[in-house]
Amino acid sequence: MSQPVYPVPAKWAEEALIDNGRYQEMYRASIDDPDAFWRREAKRLDWIKPFTQVKETSFDEADFGIRWFADGTLNLSANCLDRHLAERADTVAILWEPDNPADQERRITYRELHEDVCRFANLLRSRGIGKGDRVTIYLPMVPEAAVAMLACARIGAIHSIVFAGFSPEALAGRIQDCDSRIVLTADEGRRGGKAVPLKANVDVALAHAPGVETVIVLAHTGADVTKVDRRDIDWTSAAGDQSASCEPEEMNAEDPLFILYTSGSTGKPKGVLHTTGGYAVWAAMTHEYVFDYRQGQIYWCAADVGWVTGHTYVVYGPLMNGGTTVMFEGVPNFPDASRFWQVVDKFQVEIFYGAPTALRALMAEGDKWVTRTSRKSLRLLGSVGEPINPEAWEWYYRVVGEGRCPIVDTWWQTETGGAMITPLPGATPLKPGSAAFPMFGVRPLLLDGEGKILEGAAEGSLVIADSWPGQMRSVWGDHERFFQTYFTTYRGYYFSGDGCRRDADGYYWITGRIDDVINVSGHRMGTAEIESALVAHCKVAEAAVVGMPHAVKGQGIYAYVTTNVEVQPDDELKAELIKWVRQEIGPIATPDVIHFTPALPKTRSGKIMRRILRKIAENDTGSLGDTSTLADPQVVDHLLATSPLAE
Ligand code: WTA
């Protein structure tokens, strides 16, 4: 069956920054002479000391290293704020929409944001925080989250945002891993009409993370929260006492900017480390080209700042480009399933960038929630975080965008800093479900199991052959783990962990993770993390977690659990384990299925046969493959007989 292709609308081809010819030309140039290409692109930033070196990178073990613009200096907060003041001080930088539509929105201009950031940066300095210090941020989606990020960047402190949906245990682990001495939080967050007890969570977390000396607490909901003397200070009054000017720290391009913890296939979450210059160039450039962004346009990326999408496309990208970025505290279905589109109408949003999981959930509610809103302001739609299935793509295109708005389906990762494979709205005919073509400077390859390069139409492991400026530079505190995780599966290449197909027209189709990472509602989770949470429960002997297909979330969490012998595995225990995992990691890790089993299928050498567990979780039990190497093949029969999906 031939796939539909949506040509570039004539108006887009004419008016966009980049049309198809220009894309081809620039892509070639970026590959043929990266130094010249990036020397030019990096001019979009204000450098304090201009760089002379551009690309100094190698993925080979012998001379492994990734450095971009390494002798240049700059400050990212100054690039997001100060340089806009002469001409755009009164332009709205952040348009904030509260969880509850009855509450007041906030419009913060560049002048105001600059002042707030300076005051907060001075406050951080007054608490002894400076260049290289780690600052943990555990805040809801409020403008102060952006203020905190930019204030860190201003003084050269390294921010580490922990998504406000993570539990105290998960927060404590992330505070300790990077030895933060300070945590920024709020009394409470709000999501979908419910309060999230952030400060109380911090108090619990700090019992396990005694190195924290300062907690700055934003009074957001006004809830009554405990105050620890000398440790806890009030955000608004303490920042209010500070001066509204703060000299930005001169940072080297390769000085760290932020850490963001993300799940991998093994062990505890890794602190993905991004540095200043390359990340900034990548964030600003991709934000401009992918969204065809021009100053004055109202742009909304509906991601949380707790994830990389929020870092690059809510805060840094749009602000470097002098844009107006919408920040939304709430959820897509509160008070009802029209909320996204009501906010679009309220602010006259032109560019909307969201996640497939939200779209699928809204699609299930029916078209009327969309069609009762105007959406006339919308010109461009985006998708990120997981593969978008063609049905959801078509719905987004036809119902939300009324067939008028191109969709940019952007493939990227926490590790890549910004969009890597994506259509450009003025250049790329769209195929629903395909992320299309590589961004400038990106050299994707598909490899087979032996590491052989596949040509033409093919399916294999997605690797990137050469460095790009936005690439992560290290795993915090464990540089060896960085090399081992990404550069040893296929020697000399960056391995993404994703599978991918390339069709005869050269379009890339991401097929999903091929390692032990699952993507639940666009949130990355290591199966190993959920397993270790389960086995930490006193009644659990062993656990194996795999992904299962889920109509809304993309993937759900399927946990096989073996209890200790004296324990009765019943529904009560299921509920207890679900609660336990939520408490250990957070609600995003809630198992969808718990399947009790007296044993897990293992090879004679004791290795769990995950392939079989995945098949059962997918309810694809007709082709379990070779089970002859199992120590006890009866285990599989038992699993099949007790599968909750089999009924
Ligand atoms: C998946 C989010 C298909 C992919 C920016 C990747 C996608 C992981 C897409 C990274 C897309 C992200 N199409 N899959 N457009 N975008 N992914 O680190 O599996 O939270 O490896 O970064 O999400 O998730 P992360």
TrEMBL record:
Residues 529-607 form the AMP-binding enzyme C-terminal domain. It is an enzyme of class 6 (ligase). Mg(2+) binds at V535, H537, V540. CoA binds at R191, G192, G193, K194, T309, N333, S521, R582. SUPFAM superfamilies: Acetyl-CoA synthetase-like. Pfam families: ACAS_N, AMP-binding, AMP-binding_C. Its EC number is 6.2.1.1. GO terms for molecular function: acetate-CoA ligase activity. Residues 23-80 form the Acetyl-coenzyme A synthetase N-terminal domain. Residues 82-466 form the AMP-dependent synthetase/ligase domain. Belongs to the ATP-dependent AMP-binding enzyme family. This is Acetyl-coenzyme A synthetase. It comes from Novosphingobium rhizovicinum.
